[in-house]
Design brief:
The complex is a heterodimer of chains A (514) and B (374). By secondary structure, chain A is an alpha/beta fold. Chain A is built from 14 helices and 23 strands. Chain A has four domains: 122 residues, 2-Layer Sandwich (Nucleotidyltransferase, domain 5), CATH 3.30.420.40; 124 residues, Rossmann fold (3-Layer(aba) Sandwich); 163 residues, 2-Layer Sandwich (Nucleotidyltransferase, domain 5); 68 residues. In chain A, strand 7, helix 5 and strand 8 form a beta-alpha-beta unit. Chain B is globular, with a radius of gyration of 19 Å. The chains are: A alpha/beta (514), B alpha+beta (374). At the A-B interface, helix 12 of A face helix 2, helix 3, helix 7, strand 12 and strand 13 of B.
Chain lengths: 514, 374
Amino acid sequence: MLRIGVDVGGTNTDAALLDGSKVLATVKSSTTADVTSGVGTAIRAVLAEAGIAAGAVNAVMIGTTHFLNAVVEGRHLEKVGILRLCGASTRSLPPLIDWPDNLRDIVDGGAVLVDGGVNYDGSEIAPLDGPAIRAACRDWRARGISSIAICSVFALVDPRMENEAADIVAEEMPEAAISLSHRVGRTGLLPRENATILNASLHKLGHETVGAFRSAFAALGLTCPLYLTQNDGTLMAADFSERYPVFTIASGPTNSMRGAAFLTGLSDAAVIDIGGTTTDIGMLVAGFPRTRSEGAAIGGVPTNFRVPDVYSFGLGGGSIVRPGEKPTVGPDSVGFRLPEKAICFGGDTLTATDIAVAAGLVDLGDRSRLSHITPEFARQMLAQMKASIETVLDRMKPSAEPIPAILVGGGSVLVDALLEGTSVSLKPDHFGSANAIGAAIAQVSGEVDSVVSLEGTTREIALEGIVAEARARAVEAGADASTIALAEIEETPLAYLPGNAVRVAAKVIGELRA
Amino acid sequence: MKYWTLTETDIDRIAIGCGILGTGGGGSTYHGALRAKALLREGKRIRMVRPADMAPDAQIIGLGGIGAPTVGIEKIAEGAEGVRLMQALEHHMGRKVDAVLGDEVGGGNGIAPMLTAAMVDLPVVDADGMGRAFPEVQMTTFFIHGQAVKPAGLADADGNVLIITEATTPKMLEKLMRASTIAMGCTALMTTAPMSGEFVRRFGVPHTTSQAWSLGDAVINARAAKEDPVEAILKQSGGVRLMRGKVTDIARRISAGFNRGTLTVAGLDEDAGRSIAIEIQNEYLIAREGEKIITMVPDLICIVDSETGRAIGTEELRYGLRIDVLSMPAPVLLRSEIALESVGPRAFGYDFDFVPMGISADAPAVPYYTEEGA
């Protein structure tokens, strides 16, 4: 199976072409403002390097920060009509209450709170108020709003009300795009509603972006399916990502960690990704990034997306080195201006890359321009950089036991010796393109997080129901049903109350359907 | 009477402090702080008053949330639960309420009384019945010192209001409240019986909102100055750091509605090589190092994020989290023999007696009680 993985970063667009588990070629090109033309350039280059025809490729996977940037910059977002199904409850905290003012003004298309919603045990809070929903739709339509977010209290216990409300909205506004909270988020009304509203506000951009990818692919002669990588490093089919663009929003660090696991064959290790400006350290557990316990804030909007637990600090190839009594490296960097600023490239700023060149770790630019850097000083600076990585590494590690470390990213030339606290420090082939490789090898997942009542049923039957729902979602996202396995299941009984309600979060993962 | 009128930045400080005083429980302060700030922006006011300034015959009720935090983050409050509850209580008693307070300063319940107070424009007494968080209704200095069990009540988001006109014991009141809360969808606002100004002055833990504010202020100032917020908490609280470390194990089990478990923390930095085990029953109750018990309930065991000083609740605990374990002396009123019967180690099923850690001292009021008013 021939796959192309593409990772669109802030500076570079990386592409990798894999035949099964063999890496045929990797390339780096510049990210473009429209994203699509840079992706096209990278794909064309990687095909040319491997000498493969576009028509032979079986799948293309793209990881992009495009949608995240849209939220962070508040651009290309559309106004959203917000429908909360809640009865009297929740009115003390109306929708958008914890949004930054600027984003709220951009996205707020009018929120309506109507009767509906369910309790933790699935009983109705109030019957769904159809006439109120129809009245809200007429108002939104009159104001030109065409993307609607619907969020019901305890939608994850019973999504029925959201589905019924969606049917009513579709009748009144046949052209509208509808985002349902039970498909987007986890338990916790405000963060789930926020994620649903973000998704709705990205709808038009998602449609346009995926459309642009499709036409670019047609121009390249690619006929294979297109996938986007999502927050947890797994894939979603392009038509699915058109409806759920918000799932791509935190996929950044995941791809390079998954790529590191693939390139080394290790499933439990520290991944140290050294770029031009920062070093990101995260932990692989069973082949996937360890996630943070708290949800991610996207552009200042609290959501409950699980994102990788990554520690970032200011050390990279472009970090500025300041000699003196107490010499320092970083945390500031010359960033993307490294090719003009670094002394070895004819510039005037001493950088971490210059130190690596002076020490002979890498052959770049003109080493003779660095004759004033003594071997002692270079050694001292390298030791200092290594120590700063080791300090963070020690904090991230689950225990004092030595663990393997995988070094990826262009800046990993800065480290040459074994890092303290590690059993082995690996710098695999293609280390600079781990992110694109991570996109190329991604699998497909399905996830459900719900509160279930065990009244009148058994724990086993309840858990089976949740896992079945997660499997159905994975198949919908493009998984081969016969390869799906349970990746994680977490049960949390509800504290402070005797009773039989538990919160269950389940996730399944499978291989991409051929 | 002198008042302290809160601003939005005061709410941020109080929320951080209530989190720390929550000793792992009490629920999140996130919703309460959002609501309090929204009320202030609407032009409502939140006025604090010192317990010693209350008229001896003033009528004061305690307000707070009851139920499962996991439900509370989904079926959020309607908003006027406390107003309906107070009106029903006033109707039942034939007498007006003069001020409100929180039974529990720890966690979200440290902010809960302010929301109702803002809506009906009553003052909030700067005192509570725990000085921390406890899992059960009767575990307050008020009940320990003979607060009446009636009338108590509950109100929910849907409009149900329940007045309990009699209960045989405070423990029975807890059972009645808990059962009714389940019927109300597992989340409700509760009040215990009205207390006099004189009773609150004598048996309330004084100035705990001030204490929460001071802790939050220390954290915010330290963060702004890029100093260690945990050091700032210690300096402000008179507590000690038991250890800086990371979570290496969390074993949970649930029985009878209690979230029980044991947390293991391995030392980092200068504490490298040490290990502390903390026993949990909704709150952090006992800290052991080897065989030795270092801190035990009712003294406070507070766990905060090593970098930000943010309190870490028991439900957030997970492998690898970098935390500081702090110990703070319980308020004077919780360490008496009579109090220890309700909130000492034996009340939580341990077979040893309370040994204090550090010296108790009541928190002073903040110096902002300067506004004259009726």
